[in-house]
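Q: Hi! First time asking for a complex rather than a single chain. Here are the components, and I think there are two in total. Is that enough to go on?
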Amino acid sequence: MGRLDPGAAAFAALALLTLGSAAVVALARNLIHSCVALAGALAGVAGLYVLLAADFAAAVQLLVYAGGTVALFLIAAMVTTRMDHVSTSNLPGARRAAGFATGLLLIGLASISLRTVWPTQDLAPVPSTAKLGHALLGDYALPFELAALVFLAGVIGAVTIARRAVRP
Amino acid sequence: MFHPALGHYLTVAAVLFGLGLFTAVTRRNVIGMLLGVELIVNAAALNFIAFDHFVAGAAGGKGTGQVFALIVVTFAASQAAIALAIVLHVYRTHRTVAADELTELRH
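A: Yes, that's all I need. Here is the structure of the assembled complex.
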């Protein structure tokens, strides 16, 4: 058995964290457990971003996703779910059909990726935040601004929908 | 010696996508479905960043995949905010968030 180098060991640990947490999200009976496990899956994906030299994307993933969005999900789950009702959250009988569809999808994806040859390169994992900054404010300035606009519209829309109707 | 390559990351992303699809289809609670959608979106963003890192000369080596991933994260965050606001509103009017009990649009 060959020795693992640190990068490979980190990849294995992060992949295990990601997929294990995602399996808990998919299979847990309790919705609150699923929400907490989502934080683990998102943190694992952030770690994989670090291994792929995408340090800024990893930081964004941790701050926006594992911090903000999961908290939002937890609050919404606690507000809207009766606690005595929280564990009965799965459709009966749908699991077999969903497992079949998922397996079919994975087989399709595997056959496509095995038949495709990508011109891969082996890059040293150097930090890429400076490159990303130049890309966001240079070539991709317009998508960047549009994303900001969409985000603003989304926040205003969410507040408008979620607030209680004010009686005149 | 094992060294993580593009195929390994694509495999992780594919399994993540599959688990997300499974979650979105089997959950009865609307919030559970949204959890599955978040997993699917993350699998897509992971693919973007893996291709950006490994594929030679991906869009001129300007970090296009990472830009895509950042915009995907932005859209997913605003989508989650709007969807959960709708869920809260639906709960206020219908007193339930089970997808099979929400059969009428107006209240």
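A: Chain A touches chain B through 86 residues (CB under 8 Å). Let me know if you'd like any chain examined more closely.
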